[in-house]
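Listing S7. Sequence submitted for prediction.
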Amino acid sequence: MLTELPQHMQDYLTKEDVPWLSIEEINARFPHITAKEITPVAKHVKPMLSLENMFDLNDLVKFISQIRKKLDLTEETPIEFCIEPKLDGLALSLTYENGKLIEASTRGDGQTGEDVLPMVKHMKSIPQVINFTGSKLVVRGEVFLKRDDFREINAKRLAANLVLYKTPRNTAVGLLKSKQPTEDTEKLSFFAYSVVEMDTAGMTLQTQFESLSFLEKIGLPVNPQRVIRTDKDCLKGIDEIQQLRPNLPYGIDGAVLKVNNFEFQKRLGESSTSPYWARAWKFPSAVGYTYLEDVIWSVGRLGAVTPVAKLTPVTIDGITIEKATLHNLDFIRHLRLQKNSYVTVERAGDVIPSIVGRAFDTRENPVYEEILPPTQCPSCQRELKVESKALWCSGGYECPDQAIQSLAYFCSKDCLDIPFMGIEAVKLFYSLGWIKTIDSVFTLLQRRKEISQLPRWSVKKTSKLLDGILAKTKESHDMVRIVMGLGIPMVGRRTASLICQSFTQSGWESLIHCLEHPETLAVGPMTQSAIRVFWSSLENREMVKRLSHFLPLIRDSSNLGSTNTGGLPTSSKVCMSGIIKGLTRDEAKKLVERHGHTVVDNVTKSISTLVIGEKPSEKKLSQARKFNIPIVEWNTYCNKLQ
């Protein structure tokens, strides 16, 4: 229904004698869609753009040089910048009419955002009325959660035996986009940082610094930590902001540099994604020091057994860290890690905790213990195998951890995308014995009454889950996703794409033939062995057979079996660089891989093509020219694929 609404609306506006449905008729025909489920949106008066990042002095010099060139300024002419902390939060646009708040929306896709006015009205940090006499004012800023408020919210959740929130930013996003406000919504903070539109006679703003002072004067909160520096002193200004970082009551992950003069900003302009007059300087990841108490071995969906460090709790940038990834045995050996080691921990990208090395241990005669890999799977106690320097469990669906991870992945957005079937629901249904293999998800259709009687499972929520499962039996599904979802050890997206290239035609028959004859596939011997072991199991063969009945329609989305790619080598390696309009990097990568090509991160002699979008890396372009590798624009590349 939702996808048909634009056409129906056009019919109602442009055609005569179009039948109208009453509310009662709509509810009868579409019982599962309610007004609450349709998220209201708001169109931005001006696109909400993102900022390009800078990481070092070279990036800063290049940024300033580009500004001088565009403005035709000499080296002697100073350029004034307003430097502000880069908050770790969520962008928000506010609209006031005659001093009253009438609209609040998130960035969304930059053109249209989600209407969050009901939540914003419950935030104490955003005034409903401001001291502004003009007819209209549109401002933008950042919603965030202070560290103390985050700790207070989690303390209440701990007392109520609820799952704790992970980070202040994620919590802020969740609270702002909730359907109903709570007392925690009041704790959200806000700083305004720009004036987008202002209707008032006789008043103009000339600089960014002046606009921040204006916003503060009319009653909107602004970040007090801001400095003005010329281009010669930008690094000094950035350093001043960074020195404040540990003592601020909220998280920041960088500094934002904006050309202060609005006339200069106008002349510099902007691209479709970011302004040319502003950049974000990213700070190094926040670090902390603590002890590696123990190592927990975690079993993944495909059977990989990986080490996770259990740490003495340490607070980094307001977040308490208790675990960190150790990747694999080689990583442990390379860093010479032992139990009881004193280690340096960072939040990579200010998000993922990671151990970066041992730190100097000042204790007297500390006792260390070697980290020994397990010989048996910690979940099913099967003997582990060592392949490609990694530990593997071959238990498959007989291994509880693998089964749960496989079921969760099969139901996730990367595969079938079944609503209300997240990891916690999977664990619950698995513990009750209702699901074991991926095909058993469809047997939940017979358990409507039992599910609705479970704690936190209302009749409405149960109906949405089961309706979602039923809908999947009537849809066509991507073959690569189905192969990935089977849970074959060592078969991820790339390998699944290679397997699907061997299909002579779309359908389950081709898939079963490939599983029966892995020696015909363009994969390595270890992967062939893993497929052979998977298919040798009677239970797995029966599972695939049952799955083919539940999901009869699988579509060819990969040019499977085709060797005609418009002159591009089949199964070639490509490297990508630059911004792809309309697609995220992950979406573009998946599209390329569906056509049997492998995407790599770096330009080497082994790749066949460098695919570029807007603003590609100069280094990658230089390397491609050095190795005589064809450089192809994204649109041209897509045309050749098709």
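Caption to Listing S7: primary sequence and predicted structure tokens for the chain studied. The longest strand covers residues 287-299. The chain has six domains: 2-38, 65-282, 285-393, 396-472, 477-555, 573-641.
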